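Lab intake sheet, docking and co-folding queue.

SAMPLE TYPE: protein with bound small molecule
LIGAND NAME: zinc ion
LIGAND FORMAT: SMILES
REQUESTED OUTPUT: full 3D complex as structure tokens
PRIORITY: normal
SUBMITTED BY: R.K., bench team

The fields below were copied directly from the construct record.
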Amino acid sequence: MFRTAIAGSLPKPAWLAETHKLWPQWKAQGDDLLKAKADATLLWVKLQEDAGLEVIGDGEQARQHFVHGFLEQVEGIDFEHKVKMGIRNNRYDAMVPQVVAPLRLKGRVHAFEAQLTRAHTTKKVKFTLPGPMTIVDTVADRFYGDKVKMAMAFAELLNQEALALQADGVDIVQFDEPAFNVYMEEAADWGVKALERAAQGLTCTTAVHICYGYGIQANIDWKNSLGHEWRQYEKVFPALAKSSIDQVSLECFHSHVPPDLMKLLEGKDVMVGVIDVASEEIETPEQVADTIGMALQFVPKKHLIACTNCGLAPMDRAVAEAKLKALAEGAKLAAKRYG
Ligand SMILES: [Zn+2]
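RESULT FIELD (auto-filled):
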């Protein structure tokens, strides 16, 4: 049997937030919003279990965006005066908050949804946090004046929250580092070190997700500019193979990533993307099993986890549900074929 998991995010129901958006506005406020977030989290826990996934997440229902959800609990950040900044090497503009003082956690960030998820499933729980390098690329620095210094400051805070999540009963803490695919030299140079700082002292499973982004137009255009072979992973995988991180999540299906790059992750669990998040078309179990079969040429069976290419947040809810089912059914079919 092949293990199955999702990268992290899932669409928010229309009664919780605006749909089909990366930075959606909430539909409620205060206590009502908290209740709605809880209901949406439970809904997706159930749907992931019904689909037959092995690892369950909160679907990131309680955070507006995968980076800013964490930042909202960090002191030293000015959210009142956001500035426009080109992010991911100017691939697109975002309104980002500014770091204006020493960084400190105000308290727990994700206790509510982590504990809720833990209480409602007996399966393994994975919880996602943004990686330090990606955070640094999604805020404006008006205080540290040094990228690496600021990344290490964020890594310390992430570590505090990660240790607390572990104490909540989370089995896998995953850091999302799409920036690793944009700043490849820096990722290998200090990005992985910052990541290890964020994961320091964790005894649960640790993971990193590196992707080519959500299925939004800016990312689709960027992918189209990358040429026939996407070799970005080649720079950072050797550094990750030597790191303390246990699992690496990568894009595979419908990407131009040469699959033999997976060999660079020898010894690690590899979360192979078998579900495309940039297409509404539902994969067939046969397609999923084919991708798993192809990956098996480079990743030993015991290290292969079938996964989505990235989060499903901006997708249509019904499409996302169908894709979860395709993922689990395809993994079952692969077990029959290659078991
Ligand atoms: Zn991603």
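REVIEWER NOTE: The longest helix spans residues 30-51.
SIGN-OFF: pending second check by T.M.
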